Amino acid sequence: MAVVPPQQDPVVEALQSYTTCDVSDALCKLKFRNGGFLSGLTMWSPRRQDGDTKIVGPAYTVQYAPLDDPRPKHPTHYIDSVPEGAVVFVSCPPNTPNAVYGGLMSTRAKASKAVGSVIDGRFRDLQEQRDLSFPVFARDVGTAPPAELLKVVAVNVPVKLQTTEQDMTIHPGDYLIGDINGVVVLPRDLAKAALPLMAKQVAADSAMAEAIAGGMSFTEASKKFRS
């Protein structure tokens, strides 16, 4: 599936106005499981769960597998094919102790004008990531590289979130949104329906906040502005 360049994608531009919570609220209304939330992925760079860093872009997926997986190793390095404006999503087997992403990867991704990386596993070179001011969301940090355990077997294929908490799939080109609240996946085919719901919800919540600050009860404000 061809991904529209981000500078031509009105969805990416529109999503800049919303938080991950706003996106989840809309997806919940559309009955998309867990509001698109991808559990266990938090911000590590440029700062640890702090600041106004936000990433929005289509997913460029990378799939790691154990060395004994029958699929051949991907013939080229995935980082050299990252599209401008993409969010790199790296998937690896659960409970992998080694890191699957490092500082040189972010250096190349940044040069390619990717907007950030989401690592469904461990990454390394934390200070280097922060020195680059490159957004990285991940499960945890590590020190050892992946080569003794894993290989990249596919790029731009659907990948499963590596957790027992959820059954979530990230497809290439799905929108990934990350901020201090976490990471959300917005399926590409739901974006058109979700955006108007976000606008409506944010307007209602803003009115509620003003009313509550002025003394109105939450119940009354909710009935007035959300019903």
From TrEMBL:
<feature type="binding site">
    <location>
        <position position="125"/>
    </location>
    <ligand>
        <name>Mg(2+)</name>
    </ligand>
</feature>
<dbReference type="InterPro" id="IPR005493">
    <property type="entry name" value="RraA/RraA-like"/>
</dbReference>
<feature type="binding site">
    <location>
        <begin position="102"/>
        <end position="105"/>
    </location>
    <ligand>
        <name>substrate</name>
    </ligand>
</feature>
<protein>
    <submittedName>
        <fullName>Ribonuclease E inhibitor RraA/Dimethylmenaquinone methyltransferase</fullName>
    </submittedName>
</protein>
<feature type="binding site">
    <location>
        <position position="124"/>
    </location>
    <ligand>
        <name>Mg(2+)</name>
    </ligand>
</feature>
<keyword id="KW-0479">Metal-binding</keyword>
<dbReference type="GO" id="GO:0046872">
    <property type="term" value="F:metal ion binding"/>
</dbReference>
<keyword id="KW-0460">Magnesium</keyword>
<dbReference type="Pfam" id="PF03737">
    <property type="entry name" value="RraA-like"/>
</dbReference>
<dbReference type="GO" id="GO:0008948">
    <property type="term" value="F:oxaloacetate decarboxylase activity"/>
</dbReference>
<dbReference type="GO" id="GO:0047443">
    <property type="term" value="F:4-hydroxy-4-methyl-2-oxoglutarate aldolase activity"/>
</dbReference>
<dbReference type="InterPro" id="IPR036704">
    <property type="entry name" value="RraA/RraA-like_sf"/>
</dbReference>
